[in-house]
Specification:
DNA binding; 299 residues; transcription regulation; three-stranded antiparallel beta sheet; LysR-type_TF; elongated; D-Maltodextrin-Binding Protein, domain 2; Arc Repressor Mutant, subunit A; transcription; five-stranded mixed beta sheet; DNA-binding; 3 domains; alpha/beta
Length: 299
């Protein structure tokens, strides 16, 4: 073959090529095809001979497509992605707060428009998402992203505000002084004892005492329930935490900064994963993107 004419290749080989491009893993591609890995390996060998190119080369635990393979993908995607019939495996990363507050909404949306796709969710955070994206463990990350290295793109989904979560039975909203005097719980995936709340209090001549640090928002309501401890939580996690019962939310007693929840992906993978990944990013934006504040019920 002297031209890049992937659309004319044997259909069975085309399916193998497409799945290897999606999975970047021979074993996973074989599982999706209900074939033995040796059969997929044999199909890849035929493709390599036909195109006189390795097409996929080992890169750590994954297969990295060659420039020739990327070019074949670019001209070979002749049909648009059809979510109504697709059985794609979509691998996304979500931070703990996004998973708790937004995954149910996203899962319902994807099931409605793409009822046969499989959604695989991995835990991510801003310290690890670039590595996960570049390694192909996930194709999209939903998290607070911070500073990103070159080659990673991002799009803001929403700007969130922090709310005060408390589990005691007292009715009056806390004053700034009372809030600072309370024992605090802090959510930190890396075990930090310092957060933005400390910076805000310091600017006002106050400090707080952190009594509990946990790695995730899941279960936080149960830890605060019946105690004097308070915590700050993103607004989009508040409904899920309130649903656990025994806690309530109120506004923080000061004007807190807002934070961007964003979607990130590897720019180097945009061509090879189009059009399904472009569709996925648009679906995430549609479902989780900036909306008029629904107004979490404040006690």
């Amino acid at each position: 073959m002297t031209r890049l004419d992937l659309p004319h290749v044997d259909l069975n080989l085309r399916v193998v090529f497409d799945l290897l491009m999606q999975e970047r893993d021979l074993r996973r591609a074989a599982e999706r095809l209900f074939l033995a890995p040796a059969q997929v390996s044999g199909a890849l060998a035929r493709l390599r001979r036909q195109y006189d190119d390795p097409l996929f080369v080992p890169a750590g635990p994954y297969l990295q497509p060659t420039p020739r393979a990327l070019a074949l993908t670019a001209i070979g995607q002749i049909a648009p992605f059809d979510p109504s019939i697709s059985r794609e495996v979509l691998r996304i990363g979500m931070s703990d707060d996004a998973e708790l507050g937004l995954l149910p909404q996203l899962q319902r949306h994807l099931h409605a428009v793409a009822p046969h796709v499989v959604l695989v969710v991995r835990r991510t955070q801003h310290q690890t998402l670039a590595r996960q994206l570049n390694a192909g463990e996930i194709t999209v990350a939903i998290a607070y992203v911070g500073e990103l290295p070159p080659g990673i793109r991002q799009r803001r989904l929403r700007r969130s505000r922090s709310l005060l979560l408390r589990g005691d039975g007292q009715g009056a909203p806390l004053s700034l002084v009372d809030y600072a005097a309370r024992p605090h719980a802090l959510v930190s995936g890396v075990g930090d004892l310092h957060g933005f709340i400390d910076d805000e209090l310091r600017q006002r001549g106050l400090s707080r005492e952190v009594r509990l640090v946990v790695p995730q928002f899941h279960g936080l309501a149960g830890l605060l329930r019946g105690s004097a401890m308070v915590a700050s939580v993103p607004d989009y996690t508040a409904p899920a935490l309130l649903a656990e019962g025994g806690v309530r939310v109120e506004e923080l007693p000061f004007a807190a900064p807002r934070f961007d929840l964003s979607m990130a992906w590897s720019a180097s993978r945009e061509v090879e994963l189009a059009p399904v990944q472009r569709w996925l990013r648009e679906a995430i934006s549609t479902c989780l993107g900036e909306v008029a504040e629904e107004g979490v019920e404040i006690a």
